Each structure stands twice: as C-alpha cells, then as structure tokens.
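Regression report. Comparing outputs from two consecutive submissions.

Submission 1:
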Amino acid sequence: MNRLRKKQNSEEDKIIIAQNKKALRDFFILDTYEAGIALEGCEVKSIRDRKVNLKDSYARIKNNQLFLYNMHISPYGNSRVQDINPTRTRKLLMHKKEIDRIAGKLTDRSLTLVPLKIYFKNNKVKVELALAKGKIKRDKRLDIQKKEHEIEIKRALKKY
C-alpha cells in the first residue's frame, strides 16, 4: 500500500521549467510523448536556473534516433567550461519502438514534432514532445474569438 502512494506522488512531482506557448498557439496538438534528454557539462544547472528557451525548437528523427534542434540553454555562469554551444543539437532518449511508431506517423508531410515542456521528473530532465499539425491563419483567428467570448461570459457571470 505504501508503494502505491509513493508511485502516485512521483507522477505528480513534475517541476515544469519551461513551456512552449508559441507551439500551443501555432499548432493543433494530436499526441504527446515523454522523452529524456542527453545533456553535457553544466547544462543541468542552467536548466535548474530556468535559463531555457523552447521557442523555435523542433525534433527530427535521423538514423532511427531522435534529435532536438534549436533549444537554447544559456551557459551556466559559474562553469569553468564556456565552450558549449547553447543551441547545439541534443539527442532525445526514447525506446526504439516508440521512435518507430512516431516515424510511422510522421510520414504524413503536414505533421511535425514540437517540444511543449521541459521539466524535472524524479530528478531527471524530461521533454514533452507533441505530434502537431500547423494551424492556418483562419484557425488562429477562431481561437482568439473563442477566448474573447469565454472572457465576456465570465465577466457577465461575475456581475450576476
């Protein structure tokens, strides 16, 4: 019984470091996946200091391996090594079966892999990837209209 409680608590112990709000605005999210990430040197310390930017990052499958491009991790200030490129390509860690499943879904040209969040789970850095389809301007406008209507409804309900 104690084991079950510990397991439930560990799933809830996600410390979100950064979110990609632009991805939520620009894409329809079809499916999400969790992946580990291979980091070098003091990158983990920079991530703990929340010096991460996911804004223009994306993931690709190359030689049956998953890589994350353009994720910016600022160099750690107290580090002796300053040679690490902040936007270097980083390898994502997933099981081969999951990568093959994602590759099968990516055969459709309009889909892409976009990181949504980076967080700590059980003291390990994890990335939440999304299989996403791009929105058209019309779709973005409809989303904005829906949000405005919801805000108006909340205001009207507050008055009464």
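Submission 2:
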Amino acid sequence: MAVITIPKPLKDKLGDEAADAFVEVVNEIDLSARQEAILIAEERFERRLSEEVAGLKQDILRLEGKIYQVKAELEGKIDQVRAELKGKITTSSEALKVELKADKADILKWMFIFWASQIGAVFALLKFFI
C-alpha cells in the first residue's frame, strides 16, 4: 500500500487531526477501489473461464464423435481385411492340397519304380545264383 503524505500548506490549513482523517478517508477509498477492481476482475475471469470451459466441452464432444466415427471405420476395415485374409487362406490351402496330392502321386510313382527295380534286381541275383 502506498504511503500518502499531505503537503505542508494543506496540513497547516486542515490541522493535524483533519489531515490524519483525510489520509484515512483516502486510504479507505483506495482500499474499496482495489476491492471493487478485484471483484470486477474475478467476475470477468469467472465469466471467461466458464466460456472457455463450455468451448472445451463442445470440442470434446466433437472429438468424441470423430473418435467413434474413426473407430467404426477402423472396425469396418479390420473386418474387410479379415474377410480378405480368410479368402486368401482358403485359396492357399486349396492350392496346397492340390500340390500335396500331386506330390503324393509322384512319390508313389517313384516308390513303385524303386520297388519294381529292387524286385527285378533280386530276381536277377537269384537267377544268377541258381
């Protein structure tokens, strides 16, 4: 708080008691002006704060809507990719089954050739010894 001094000519004219009373009145006016300024600032701050909070709430609601929209889009894309993956797995497994059947037939053919040649070799050896 600022110290108020009364100039000497005014103090001489008013007297010591009146000068002190005048200083008290000025100090009270200053104090009440400061309190009013603080109240006005508080009211402005509260009003501004409530406006900003309301704006933030609206922004949050908009963001929530966008989040749900993005979530729905992602779930749709995930389902689409899942269906494509199942289709590719089914196609690949069918192709693998066909390839395994062909390899199985090829292995049986070579086994038959091996057995036939082994039987022929055994008969040739037996004929050679007999």
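Expected: both submissions complete independently.
Actual: both completed, but the second showed a warning that disappeared on reload.
Relevant detail on submission 2: The mean pLDDT is 90.
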